[in-house]
Amino acid sequence: MERRTFLTSAALGAAASTLAAPALAQTQPEIKWRLASSFPKSLETLFGTGEYITRRVAEATDGKFQIRSFAAGELVPGLQVLDTVQAGTVECGHTVSYYYVGKDPTFGFESTMPFGTNTRQQNAWLYQGGGLELMRDFFRGYNVINFPAGNTGTQMGGWFRKEIKTVDDLKGLKFRIAGYAGRVLTKLGVVPQQLAGSDVYPALEKGTIDGAEWVGPADDEKLGFHKVAPYYYYPGWWEGGPTVTMLVNIAAWEKLPKAYQAIFESACADANLHMSAKYDVLNPPALKRLIGNGAKLRPFSKEIMQACYKAAQDTFAEDAASNPAFKKVFEHWSAFLEEQRSWFRVAEYGFDNFVLNGIPKK
């Protein structure tokens, strides 16, 4: 009897929800936004995730809330999305916050920091560990509100025209790299170059730069980097689990009906899972194809990794000493990260280490 009552109530609830959706749509206004992306259309997972969000929003509002996506360069250059949203020229933008560390290094925490969180830890910090509240306080000073809206998983270390075996090989190297890691690598003699995705291949081909990192096999294959820089290094120690973010102009956000706000935020959270799952499906076969087409897979040496780690810690200390906003977030993030690592060393690492290294290969 109790089971029958429960099923009847659930069915009535579902019917009510179905009936309520059109009624809700009829009472809500029609709203049209524009979305500026930092990514070209050729990168179907990065650019496509922004479009995934716009579809989810439109579907959930019965077409009342429409957001039109524009690829990098169509409205504004890919690295100017924050400025455009801040000014209210467009209502929202899909980007990565570490593109803007030149304004303030604190931006980096909302996406990823060198030798920092992996994807799960980053999501834990943002959604449940207090990180999102901290970062929204910071972003408010730029007239925007931020929503996690994608994650690529750990990225690769990039493509190089020659082998990188020692720390000395880094000296004078012109390397396309975004975010905080560029500042870290300058301590080792690297000359960082921040270029939008569409500009990287021609710069590598012409020898204007010596190497470039982008994302991982699925996207790197599309951009063809293996044709002009055959050495493919791992891991991308500067991007253990980078969040791709949706920035929204605060004034535009506050004008939205509460129901639309809830739908928009849910669509971004959905996209966060959608992107990481998609990359985990696409990257393994893409890596096999790249190797089959001549890519030479290489790990960064222990010497290079240790030197980079020390340079990262030195850079963190310098910024914490000179930037109160950075210090506030860094101290919170560091404590959270240490606690996460104490747990991951037990079950997660124990499991991963055995299944990846302890099981005989077929």
From TrEMBL:
Pfam families documented for this protein: DctP
InterPro entries: DctP_fam, SBP_TakP-like, TakP/all3028, TAT_signal, TRAP_DctP_sf
Amino acids binding Na(+): 214
SUPFAM superfamilies: Periplasmic binding protein-like II (SSF53850)
An individual GO BP term: organic acid transport
Signal sequence region: 1-25
TM helices/strands, residue ranges: none
Keywords: Metal-binding, Signal
Residue ranges of coiled coil: none
Residues binding substrate, per UniProt: 155, 176, 213, 239
GO cellular-component term (any): tripartite ATP-independent periplasmic transporter complex
Xref: PROSITE patterns: TAT
GO molecular function: metal ion binding; organic acid binding
PANTHER family: EXTRACYTOPLASMIC SOLUTE RECEPTOR PROTEIN, PTHR33376
Protein name as annotated: TRAP-type mannitol/chloroaromatic compound transport system, periplasmic component
Organism: Magnetospirillum fulvum MGU-K5
